[in-house]
Amino acid sequence: MSFPQTRLRRLRSSDSMRRLVRETAVCVDDLVYPLFVRKGRGLKEPIKSMAGCFHFSPDTIVKEAEEVAKLGIPAILLFGLPDKKDITGSEAWAEDGAVQSAVRAIKKDVPNLVVITDVCLCAYTSTGHCGLIKNGCLDNDATCELLAKVALSHAQAGADIVAPSDMMDGRVKAIRQCLEKNDFPDVAIMSYAAKFASAFYGPFRDAAESAPDATTGLADRKTYQADPANARQALAEIALDIEEGADIVMVKPALAYLDIITRARQRFDCPIAAYHVSGEYMMIHDSAKAGHIDKDAAVLEILTSIKRAGADIIITYFAKEAAMTMRK
Fold this sequence. Notes:
This protein is an alpha/beta fold. The protein has helices spanning 15-20, 60-70, 98-109, 140-157, 171-181, 202-207, 231-244, 258-267, 278-289, 295-309, 319-327; strands spanning 31-38, 44-46, 54-56, 75-81, 114-119, 133-134, 137-138, 161-164, 188-195, 248-252, 272-276, 313-316. The strands form two sheets. An eight-stranded parallel β-barrel has the order 1-4-5-8-9-10-11-12, surrounded by nine helices. The chain has a two-stranded antiparallel ribbon with strand order 6-7. α2 packs across α3 (98-109), α4 (140-157) packs across α5 and α8 packs parallel to α10 (295-309).
């Protein structure tokens, strides 16, 4: 390649030319929209820490699900908040829990929308941790048993995909065996396989009311979420979850871990999801609000970077806005 025979600008000369040779395209089919649900009726309460996001009740979330489906977004991801918290997080697997009620309502009115449910205990336990705390330590194996109960209750309500986000060792196997044993072999598992102990979860923890209680002896989740410095260990986590029965694996967060997404894509053949998390979402929101960036352009650029890195599925609070922008 030498100048002037090779002029790469020739292929950037117009919008049509750029579209013709574009290597990566994000489309609405790639998107998943996260939603928060809590018990009650008629609720649509703004979440202070996450602009444009709301706490819904099971009845009002149906209308939101209908809107998501009309935009062509294929899936939603549900997070639940309980009425009461306890040491075991028992409301997480209650038949009349917020998530279970929402799933039944959504699948009744919007049956073709894929419903994914987050499987974790952090929003349900009085400790704010993702599992049972015993003597200042997290009891991994006892937590896996409870997570299987949560996943089963979601499957019984009609969830299409259950998504364990706790980072316990062996929880995918426990859930897969429980689903098979109870005649739910077709419910898929999307594992938060490489979920890092990130600084970008702050707004979500406020939204889910799931900040960990330091008085338990564990001030944070670093003993179970992945170390941000460790790429090889993250890939080992992904490999184990696939071996245990995960159908889809996730890297979370997305932006600070694009290299992990790429390395996972190069090594594994299953669908890879990436979670564009709350802190990343609010950085864009706040920067746009201050007039520093064009929000729509920035969102599409970032989603493209996640897709270019190798993600098949992008979970983002910008899903609705991105879908509307793509329609223009």
